[in-house]
Amino acid sequence: MGPVSCEKDQKVEKTPEEWRASLSPEAYRVARCGGTEPAFTGKYWNTKTAGIYCCACCGAALFDAATKYDSGTGWPSFYEPSTPDAVAARDDMSHGMARTEALCRRCDAHLGHVFPDGPEPTGLRYCINSASLKLEPSET
Ligand code: FE
Predict the structure, then answer these.
(1) For the residues of 92-105, what is the DSSP string, one character each?
(2) What CATH number does residue 100 fall under?
(3) Nearest to residue 73, comparing CAs of 42, 100, 50?
(4) Enclosing domain of residue 102
(5) Is 127 a catalytic residue?
(6) Does residue 80 form part of some domain?
(7) How far apart are the CA of 56 and the centre of ligand 1, in A?
(8) What is the 121 CA–ligand 1 centroid distance (Å)?
């Protein structure tokens, strides 16, 4: 047996049936099928609680609440991931738009999209569906 790798580096892979069984219908539709929740309807669009936003599918840390800001869009918006490799990006040409999709690096969950109109210091806006997130509040 070789050395055990750090758990956070291991890919999480499940079948669609397994994901469906472990997620709410809304989280399954958004995170596993590339859906989008309507603006101003998600659980976290206006949340200001301190903590870490984790992947609703695999629990990986994705965004620190300290980087969340009010974008006015009705979706939780962050200017950077909690670690540089937490969130993957890929081109998304669907719906007649050239966009950059944001995914959980660990389990490939669809999170939302990244736009180049965010605040300093990154200038990026990670526009994320609440349904793909689970907030772990800080201990107070
Ligand atoms: Fe994940």
Answers:
(1) E-GGG--EEEEEET
(2) 2.170.150.20
(3) 42
(4) 16-137
(5) yes
(6) yes
(7) 7
(8) 25
